[in-house]
Design brief:
By secondary structure, the chain is of the alpha+beta class. The protein has helices spanning 41-67, 100-106, 178-185, 241-248; strands spanning 2-7, 15-19, 24-27, 75-77, 82-83, 92-95, 116-119, 124-125, 130-132, 140-141, 144-150, 166-173, 176-177, 200-208, 219-224, 227-233, 258-260, 284-289, 293-300. The longest helix has 27 residues, at 41-67. 45% of the residues are buried.
Length: 306
């Protein structure tokens, strides 16, 4: 199932829904009356198998109604709603240099174990929202990454049991101010270069684990203004998802936390041709991952109006 958070027309609060086969959105929040249905993405994650079964049954009943020519209530066209970030996790553990080709293009060698940095959750924006290019960087870069959504509170997870703790998958764009990031790295820390407003587009929805039997057989494609920049596969990850979960679970993971699994080559930092691949005002960024979808955002250097 594709589960999403959205704002219906004229609504003042976010709703929780599931994508139908006809491309419309079933408002799970609207089905709550008289039923113990989860009302938010996090409630669904924490509800475990029972919550997913409830949603699956509602989805099946709605699909049957549509097939019978009936128009169910609590259904919206995707184009009529505003997509929000699927959830705001407790934390984002971002894996660095997890593809050897990307490690080479940004300098240095790949890490011998999963390693990286923490991405602040207040950097998250949704599909369709604007990426705000800070005025203090000339090297705003993109990294298209498969993001793993953790299913439950867990720690000290053995690699062989890692997938038991996966709720699903989504897309995260790890935006970087490379000039600042590389300067910080000389001092041993990466902070501002990875954490600034709008630095983590997330979405457009979460695909449940059962829909992706092997997360290491997915195409990753990134386009800027229609030009393909990244074209790779998750098969080439160095440290696979079970190793990532096992390692980061030493710090303790909670339901809804995200592990962003790294990005392949094709970033602005690795471009050697004429001009630049760093993001500029007006650029249209499209990050696609097979079996999940496409996350679309536009870059602006204009300051947000207060």
């Amino acid at each position: 199932m594709k589960l999403l958070t959205f704002r219906p027309p004229r609504a003042r609060t976010d709703h929780f829904g599931v994508l139908l086969s006809n491309g419309k959105v079933l408002d799970v929040s609207g089905l709550q009356a008289g039923r113990a249905m989860p009302g938010t993405m996090l409630a669904c994650i924490r509800g475990g198998a029972a919550a997913l079964t409830q949603i699956s049954q509602a989805l099946s009943a709605t699909e049957q109604s549509i097939a019978a020519g009936k128009m169910p209530e609590h259904m919206f066209s995707l184009g009529d709603v505003t997509l929000k970030a699927p959830l705001i996790p407790g934390k984002i553990m971002a894996v660095g240099k997890n593809y050897s080709d990307h490690a080479a293009e940004v300098g240095g060698v790949a890490y011998t174990r999963p390693s990286g940095f923490i991405k602040h959750t207040d950097t998250i924006i949704a599909d369709g929202e604007t990426i705000r290019k800070p005025g203090w960087t000339e090297k705003l870069d993109y990294e298209n990454e498969l993001a793993v959504v953790i299913a439950d509170d867990c720690s000290e997870v053995p690699p062989e049991n890692a997938y038991d703790h996966v709720f699903g998958y989504t897309i995260m764009v790890d935006l970087s101010a490379r000039d600042v990031q590389f300067a910080e790295r000389k001092e041993g820390n990466i902070m501002i270069g990875k954490n600034f407003p709008t630095a983590a587009p997330l979405g457009p929805w979460i695909v449940t684990r059962d829909e992706i039997p092997d997360p290491h057989q997915l195409k990753i494609i990134t386009r800027v203004n229609g030009e393909v920049r990244q074209d790779a596969s998750t098969a080439t990850q160095i440290h696979k998802i079970p190793q990532q979960i096992a390692w980061y679970s030493h710090a303790g993971l909670q339901a809804g936390d995200i592990i962003s699994t790294g990005s392949p080559a094709g970033t602005g930092a690795g471009y050697q041709g004429e001009g630049t691949w760093y993001l500029q005002h007006g650029d249209r960024l499209e990050c696609e991952i097979e079996r999940i979808g496409t996350l679309r955002n536009t870059v602006s250097s204009r300051k947000r109006r207060s």
